[in-house]
Every structure is written in C-alpha cells, then in structure tokens.
Prior knowledge:
Structural class: alpha+beta
Number of domains: 1
Largest sheet: 4 strands, antiparallel
CATH class: Alpha Beta
Strand order of the largest sheet: 1-2-3-4
Distance between the termini: 24 Å
Helix content: 25-40%
CATH superfamily: ApbE-like domains
Shape: globular
CATH topology: T-fold
Strand content: 15-25%
CATH architecture: Roll
Order of helices and strands: EEHHHHEEEEEEHHEE
Amino acid sequence: MKDIRLIMGMPIEIEIVAPDAGDTLEKAFAYLVSVDERFSTYKEGSEISRINRGEIVPPDARPVRDKDSESPGRPMAGVSNGASADMHEVFAIAEKTKQETDGYFDMRKPDGSVDPSGIVKGWAIKNTATLIRSSGYENYFVNAGGDIAMDGTNADGKDWSVGIRNPFKIDEIVKVVYPRGKGIATSGSYLRGAHIYNPHAPKEELLDIVSITVIGSDVLEADRFATAVFAMGKGGVHFVEKLQGFEAYTIDAHGIATMTSGFGVYTQSR
Length: 270
C-alpha cells in the first residue's frame, strides 16, 4: 500500500509492502500531522511558536520569574513550564549536533528565535519507521522531501533505490543509490532556495555547494549532519569522511560531484 500526502509543507510518501497495511498507513500519516502541529514555526498555535513567543519555557531554560512575587519560583502569568517530552528530546538532539559539528548546526536563528526543523524532519521520519515496524511490517519506504527511511525490499522483492537529483535539472537523476536499510538525507538550495546558513557567518551566502546527500545509520543521523555539512561548504565532504559510519555525495556550484571514499558501496545493487 502506498500514499502521498502534503504535510510539513512537502509531499510525504509512505509505502508499506503489504495489502493489509491501511490502518498502519493512516496512523503513520496522523503521527506526522501531529508533529507538524507541535513543531511548525509557521503555525501560531504550535508548541515551538509558543516557545518563541515566551509562552512556554524552552527545555533547559530557567522559568521566567515575577519580580514582584513573594514566591520567586512562580512563573509569570501566561507562561507555562510545560515543554513536552518530545520537545525536550529534539532540543537535546539539536544541542548534541551543535557540539559534534563545531557549531555548524545551530537551531537558534540570527533573530534569536528557535527553529528545530533541521532535526525534526529526520526525527519524525525515524519515529514513523519505528511505528511501521512495531506494527509488524518489515518492508517499507518513507520519504519526506529527500529524508528517507526504508527497510526490507520493494514490491518486486528488490532493494529499495533512491535517485539523487541533478540540482541544475531536477527532473534528471545523476546517481542511484541503494541504502539497504540505512538512512539518507539531502540538503540543498536548489528546491527551497537559501534556507540554510552558516552560524559562524550568518550574513554570508552559501554558494559553493548546491546539494549534499548523506547516508548514515538511520535517517535522523543522516539528516542532522546533512544540514551542518551543507553549511560547511566545500569542507563538508571532508568532515563526513572522518565520521565513522557516514558517507556523502556533494555537487558544487560548477556541477562537479565529490564523494567520500566509501560512498561507492551504495551505488551497487545486489
């Protein structure tokens, strides 16, 4: 069973290779809708929007205190201490990624607001895959804007394959990869424009690299590094080369592709 729905501002495709997977398919899409409702910075009522407005104290932040109150531990009126467990988890992953990438991933924007989307998409897709597996299905494919989780085989009994688009001609595939259960994520400017910035030089345009695809142990691992690696520019592929268990494929502004030493393994079908 297969369906594609517009969630998180992008088409999300889920395929479960089983004729009786309709209920699980609905649960998977419903979960993704719930994530969007909590984490979208475009929805005024989302939890992350309320955090950015100061209505909810963010994880690892001290409660806002009323100076005139005799009880200094009481939050100010209208402010909640109740960031959800999911929000705590995403913030923790974001901080871990910031530390592991020398600050090239930072969910705090130059204007001071927080945007965890560089973590949330991969995190949500990984959780969706877990939901599908826990329902007893071993062969599935979940794709959210190039962040992909998969396992098992497709409807033809073959390995799932993923095409890397030509960023200069998006209807053309320049490389086919077979992740074989690994996670894959692509970051770039060719579809969404300049939405990634270098936290160390936020005013500088990222012009060197137009696309980078990262393969990691799961989609969350691939996704959280892909954003940071794109922000690193030409040095990103060398950063991935040193990461154990990761491979990357980049295309620069001149159309020249560079890949890590082990990437070729994933271009071969079995």
